[in-house]
Prior knowledge:
By secondary structure, the chain is of the alpha/beta class.
Amino acid sequence: MKSTTNPAQVYTVFSPKGGVGKTTIAVNLAESLNQAGLKTLLLELDASPGDISTILELERSKNLMLAIDSPDSDIRRLLSVTSDGIQVLLGPQNPEDGEVIKEADLEAVLNRLKYLFDVIVVDTSSTINEAIAAALKRSDRVFFVVEPCLSAVSRSVESLRFLDRRLSIPTDTMELIINKCRNHGAIKEKEVVESLNLTVAALVSFDERYQKRAKNSKGGYAKGSINKATKQVVSNLYPELNNGKLRIRLRRLFG
């Protein structure tokens, strides 16, 4: 059951560069929140084929486009549930559909979901379209994922500038998750932070053994350094967590 009558907190996981582990982090974050006792929805805005449905072994027949096209339907019927109890609203089946989702469409869907859950975790594409921009604006917290490499940092600097100057999306809700940190990396984590001027939510060490296991096993998303990092993120978001359980208050934790 949902713990309060307050609207769900919206946490969006974003990166302007593909292949940095954004979706894996979003899935792990949703699981960590769910395990902490928060009723959690994972909302996929990335229309790239396969991502979350493949990781979580879900059919894409129930998806976001059906929710948009059927505004009067019970949206709970369009949610998938993983073996770990995470509820998921999958993204469009066709990549082209992701480009036609409007800000009003996403806002309407979030309004139908916000009193059903404590937390909504949004996984985005690396391309900023209208729906992604709307999610970033609507978020209580944005986790900006970057790797400590020159190409990722350069693209992130450009993206932050675009979000601020062109879309008027402030950075005060954004925190960094630096993924695949290596001791011998070309760019140190400190340099990443200085370049992007964002607070660090988590550092995820590169785990080569985990990377190999995840490719060859089911449910690999729930293991390794990413999962440890997202559990720490949840602890920082909800300092009242104690041994994985939330001491529920009557008033909102934020705002």
